[in-house]
Specification:
The complex is a heterodimer. By secondary structure, chain A is mainly alpha-helical. Chain A contains 12 helices and no strands. Chain A starts with a helix and ends in a 5-residue tail after the last helix. By secondary structure, chain B is of the alpha/beta class. Chain B has 2 domains: 3-214, P-loop containing nucleotide triphosphate hydrolases (Rossmann fold); 229-291, Alpha-Beta Plaits, CATH 3.30.70. The chains are: A mainly alpha, B alpha/beta. Bound molecules: adenosine-5'-triphosphate (ATP) and magnesium ion.
């Protein structure tokens, strides 16, 4: 109950922040605009577009996750809003978890908005030919083709029909991005209980980069002809740093050689992994925060 | 009498691991606050008042010593249902409206939507913000925010209130309202731990006061005890020469206010004698008043002495 009240307040505050809203609006708008301005040549590989969008959502989401994870708790201490909260029957852990859940919901909304924009854009790109042909009389007024309402209708129907297969194609990647970023929020929020904002920013970013190489560390561990030292080092990194890399798998450009055989299973495994990492990070964070002077 | 707060050897040292300097903010504090009293917690800036309150609430932790609040160790969560805290210059979520802010605080006590809203409306009216409840706190003036602070301290109908400078930034009317509120709280049997620099307020509402300087408690007691001066003022008329001579010999000071009237300041033990002298000489007594220091005098004297 208390956790939900805090979470709701956090979410409410986040979506009223002009910086976040503007940033999201711009990113969401950029997604279809990038298509219009011929960011991609007419018949460019769909994989490139997919990768581009995954990258864009990933980077924008990473920024949002980092900023929220780093700021949410320290800012309450700095603004001293925490005094009136902790003098009420609110446990430290309830506060921290509330902030975390608030951040996760804000992140969910952001990723969902960008994901929906990407799905719509890709659908238009893939299934829009019929509609654009039907619209030629408008787009090219001097062609002597006639406007047929039925053709336009069929074009629109084609696009709607295309939404489902496009959703199937993009959604798994977007889901993985979201769960990857929940770990970023967790990591940054954990560090925010004991580190200053900038140190936290660099530490979390560095760990994100290292963790993004989880496929590399994995192959180092499995490698036959590696020295024990290398293996040990890779082992430590692989299991100590969250394996962010596993969540890039569906990005065809970052991970060209990876073929996931059972996609549902792979996603389920990674979602569970991300949740476990978050639980652990929050447990450590609470442990520190309980003793923190505010 | 039951104790609302028990403080034993409470000490707080602020240390910063980047620089070596340490601040001894509270130094072996011992203090008992009785249930149902209004306790004035005084001291100059930086004396350690806020630090003490924060330790009692479990916002920060003592370096040594201990404290009990409403029978439980300081910081206990269940106890927090029965107490409240108005921080000095309180801060809130600025994007919220007055109603939203108070609803939020009500929810932290487990009140549901409708109940929380009702409580919020009630409190806003009580602190005179009924007209501004739909405005966001960003647009509130300092005094209006202070009133929100007071309202949030009443949300749970607490039996113990920690008020850290509750009247700062308030206009004279609101100031008076707060004084009345505190007196009202006393009538309801609540305990108030009041830290304030408004000594006239403190003098008007508090049962007992303490003065802390540089982390140490230097004075503690009821206002009567602390402010009792060693002298009595006797005002009389129609005093003859002989009587005047006698009065001079037993008083600190005798002023002839006008031809007829005298004002003499005698030690308390001698006041009876002075009255006798006047009555015997057929003088006319106008008033006999035990002298009382003002709290301000006591405060300044205590701080000066500590500085020396
Ligand atoms: N977080 C902190 N870190 C280091 N020193 C602190 C901290 N908070 C307070 N102090 C120091 O502790 C001492 C007591 O401060 P405190 O805020 O308790 O004073 P106060 O009696 O409330 O004063 P005021 O009347 O100005 O509100 C001061 O010397 C102050 O500088
Ligand atoms: Mg203070």
């Amino acid at each position: 109950m208390t956790i939900l009240t805090i979470a709701r307040t956090t979410f409410g505050e986040a979506i009223r922040r002009k910086v976040l809203v503007t940033f999201l609006a711009v990113t969401v708008a950029l997604i279809p605009i990038s298509l219009m301005f011929g960011f991609f040549s007419y018949r460019q590989e769909l994989t490139t577009i997919k990768s581009f969008y995954f990258g864009m959502i990933g980077i924008a989401g990473l920024l949002i996750a980092l900023i929220m994870g780093i700021q949410l708790v320290p800012i309450e201490i700095e603004r001293r809003t925490i005094y009136t909260i902790h003098s009420k029957p609110v446990n430290r852990y309830e506060f921290l978890l509330g902030k975390f859940l608030g951040a996760l919901s804000t992140l969910l909304l952001s990723i969902a908005l960008m994901g929906v924009a990407a799905i719509i854009a890709v659908t238009m790109k893939t299934y829009g030919d019929e509609l654009s042909r039907a619209l030629i009389p408008i787009t090219e007024p001097f062609s002597n083709q006639k406007l047929h309402i039925s053709e336009i209708g069929r074009g629109i129907a084609a696009i709607f029909a295309g939404l489902v297969p496009t959703f199937r194609q993009l959604a798994p990647g977007v889901v993985l991005i979201y769960f990857q970023l929940t770990m970023v929020v967790g990591l940054a929020m954990f560090f925010s209980t004991c580190l200053g904002a900038w140190v936290n920013f660099f530490t979390t970013s560095a760990l994100y980069c290292v963790g993004s190489l989880s496929q590399v560390t994995d192959s180092l561990i499995r490698g036959e002809n590696k020295s024990l030292l290398t293996k040990g080092f890779a082992y430590i990194i692989h299991y100590l740093v969250p394996q962010f890399g596993n969540f890039h798998v569906l990005n065809p450009i970052l991970q060209p050689h990876n073929v996931v055989r059972d996609l549902d299973k792979y996603i389920a495994q990674n979602v569970v992994y991300a949740m476990l990492v978050c639980v652990m990070l929050m447990a450590f964070g609470i442990w520190i925060f309980e003793k923190k002077e505010v | 009498m039951a104790e609302a707060i028990k403080i034993r050897n409470l000490t707080k040292v602020y240390s910063n691991f980047l620089s070596k300097d340490k601040v001894l903010a509270v130094d072996s504090l011992n203090l008992d606050i009785h249930e149902g009293e209004i306790f004035g917690f005084l001291g100059p800036n930086g004396a350690g008042k806020t630090t003490t309150i924060k330790m009692l609430l479990g916002l920060i932790f003592p370096t040594s010593g201990e404290a009990e609040v409403l029978g439980k160790p300081a910081g206990d969560i269940e106890t927090k249902r029965r107490l409240s805290y108005l921080p000095e210059s309180p801060y809130f979520y600025e994007y919220m409206t007055g109603t939203e802010a108070l609803e939020f605080y009500a929810r932290l006590f487990g009140m549901g939507g409708a109940q929380a809203r009702k409580k919020a409306d009630e409190l806003l009216t009580q602190v005179g913000l009924g007209g501004a409840k739909k405005k966001s706190l960003r647009e509130y003036s300092k005094g209006m925010l202070q009133r929100i602070g007071i309202a949030q301290a009443l949300v749970n109908d607490p039996s113990l209130l920690f008020l850290d400078e509750p009247t700062s930034g308030l206009d004279p009317i609101a100031h008076m309202d707060i004084r009345d509120l505190i007196l009202q709280l006393r009538e309801q049997g609540k305990t108030v731990f009041l830290s304030s620099h408004q000594l006239t307020d403190v003098e008007m509402v508090c049962d007992r006061v303490s003065i802390m300087v540089a982390g140490k408690l230097l004075k503690m007691g009821s206002l009567d005890e602390l402010l009792k001066a060693g002298a009595t003022e006797v005002v009389a008329r129609k005093i003859g020469k002989e009587a005047l001579r006698k009065l001079r010999s037993i008083s600190h000071q005798v002023d002839e206010a006008d031809k007829d009237k005298i004002v003499c300041l005698t030690p308390n033990e001698a006041s009876q004698q002075a009255v006798c002298v006047i009555v015997e000489s057929r003088g006319e007594i106008i008033s006999v008043t035990p002298q009382r220091n003002t709290l301000e005098e006591l405060f300044i004297r205590t701080v000066r002495e500590a500085e020396e």
